[in-house]
Amino acid sequence: EYGVSPQAGDEERVVESALRPHSLPDFIGQPKVARQLALVLEGAKRRGRPPDHVLLSGPPGLGKTSLALIIGSELGTSVKITSGPAIERSGDLAAMLSNLGPGDVLFIDEIHRIARPAEELLYMAMEDFRVDVVVGKGPGATAIPLEISPFTLVGATTRAGLLTGPLRDRFGFVGQMEFYEPAELQQVLARSADLLGVELTDDGSAEIARRSRGTPRIANRLLRRVRDYAEVEADGRVTRAVARAALALYDVDELGLDRLDREVLDALVTKFSGGPVGVSTLAVAVGEEPHTVEEVCEPFLVRAGLLARTPRGRVATEAAWRHLGRPLPRGGIP
Ligand code: ADP
């Protein structure tokens, strides 16, 4: 599916690596996290010690992986990449940890999905740079402590609250990533257009930025689609008119909502008369996991002013009814 989902497909990962920022000054937006992180890294460099473990939280496509790679390049160390769901047995993690060189960065994406035994192994590794390797089975099994190199763990998660307390407490720094402002996305687009050799006008980039769901990954993806259109149907320049025509062709929402965002809003309005309704009920109605609706979809809908979280459940705002082109309910918004 082409889509405007904030998640990346495998092929896209390859294209993305060409557009990744490689240093903190290259990294656009997230002023708070970037400044805090710069201090954490500088302090560690001065002390000649690996920095504290870093947890980055926020919806997909906002630059968590990019920042993990930047941490490695700023420190001049290598970065090993894995993800919570990929670590099936704690032995896999132990092997990975013991292969780290001094000061290396281990990046674990979706760290909240790590299996419990592996998570417990991680506690000791993070705290004491040691793991217990269990040899043998049953009553004769013994745990052999194994030293590992001091390293920095960078974990990424959609929301810090999804981590267990003990895991969260072992991170010395938690960076909360925010959706990007349109002006910041325009900077991302200008940089990418440069790298791709695309001529992009200011109003062309404003049009793409506005519909990118506050997400650099989506901005870059839309730029590639609009570029195709510009090359085939126009003179190659991405102007506002070209961007509008291309985005209309690809069904990109005027506000940047993706398929799931729209389905959630649509269900809320049509099946539940605008709410209030609980998030699990809403998730069932669109055939999604509640946590996907809650962690991926809702943050953007709330920020776009289309959905409100109330103590009684989720409610569609007036703007949501308008955006879906539906008449407002008679009795008003619940
Ligand atoms: P996440 O790990 O949060 O899902 P990524 O780090 O993979 O996000 O970012 C997705 C893509 O978006 C990257 O390939 C990069 O091209 C682009 N990107 C993300 N953040 C920035 C940024 N701050 N500046 C420039 N490009 C960015």
TrEMBL record:
Region (Head domain (RuvB-H)): 254-334
Protein name (database record): Holliday junction branch migration complex subunit RuvB
Function: The RuvA-RuvB-RuvC complex processes Holliday junction (HJ) DNA during genetic recombination and DNA repair, while the RuvA-RuvB complex plays an important role in the rescue of blocked DNA replication forks via replication fork reversal (RFR). RuvA specifically binds to HJ cruciform DNA, conferring on it an open structure. The RuvB hexamer acts as an ATP-dependent pump, pulling dsDNA into and through the RuvAB complex. RuvB forms 2 homohexamers on either side of HJ DNA bound by 1 or 2 RuvA tetramers; 4 subunits per hexamer contact DNA at a time.
Reaction(s) catalysed by this chain's protein: ATP + H2O = ADP + phosphate + H(+)
InterPro entries assigned to the protein according to its UniProt record, in alphabetical order: AAA+_ATPase (IPR003593), AAA_lid_4 (IPR041445), DNA_helicase_Holl-junc_RuvB (IPR004605), P-loop_NTPase (IPR027417), RuvB-like_N (IPR008824), RuvB_wg_C (IPR008823), WH-like_DNA-bd_sf (IPR036388), WH_DNA-bd_sf (IPR036390)
Keywords tagged on the record: ATP-binding, Cytoplasm, DNA damage, DNA recombination, DNA repair, DNA-binding, Helicase, Hydrolase, Nucleotide-binding
GO biological process, one term: DNA repair
Residues that hold Mg(2+) according to the record: T65
Chain sites annotated for binding ATP: L19, R20, G61, K64, T65, S66, E127, D128, F129, R170, Y180, R217
Entry annotated with the keyword Hydrolase: yes
UniProt domain comment: Has 3 domains, the large (RuvB-L) and small ATPase (RuvB-S) domains and the C-terminal head (RuvB-H) domain. The head domain binds DNA, while the ATPase domains jointly bind ATP, ADP or are empty depending on the state of the subunit in the translocation cycle. During a single DNA translocation step the structure of each domain remains the same, but their relative positions change.
Pfam families tied to this protein: AAA_lid_4, RuvB_N, WHD_RuvB
PANTHER family: HOLLIDAY JUNCTION BRANCH MIGRATION COMPLEX SUBUNIT RUVB, PTHR42848
Region of interest called Small ATPAse domain (RuvB-S), as start-end residue ranges on this chain: 181-251
Record note on quaternary structure: Homohexamer. Forms an RuvA(8)-RuvB(12)-Holliday junction (HJ) complex. HJ DNA is sandwiched between 2 RuvA tetramers; dsDNA enters through RuvA and exits via RuvB. An RuvB hexamer assembles on each DNA strand where it exits the tetramer. Each RuvB hexamer is contacted by two RuvA subunits (via domain III) on 2 adjacent RuvB subunits; this complex drives branch migration. In the full resolvosome a probable DNA-RuvA(4)-RuvB(12)-RuvC(2) complex forms which resolves the HJ.
Residue sites binding DNA per the record: R309, R314
Encoding gene, per UniProt annotation: ruvB
SMART domains: AAA (SM00382)
Recorded family membership: Belongs to the RuvB family.
Location(s) in or outside the cell: Cytoplasm
Species of provenance: Geodermatophilus saharensis
Enzyme class: hydrolase
GO function terms (MF aspect): ATP binding; ATP hydrolysis activity; four-way junction DNA binding; four-way junction helicase activity
Gene Ontology terms: cellular component: cytoplasm; Holliday junction resolvase complex
AAA+ ATPase domain mapped to chain residues: 50-181
E.C. number: 3.6.4.-
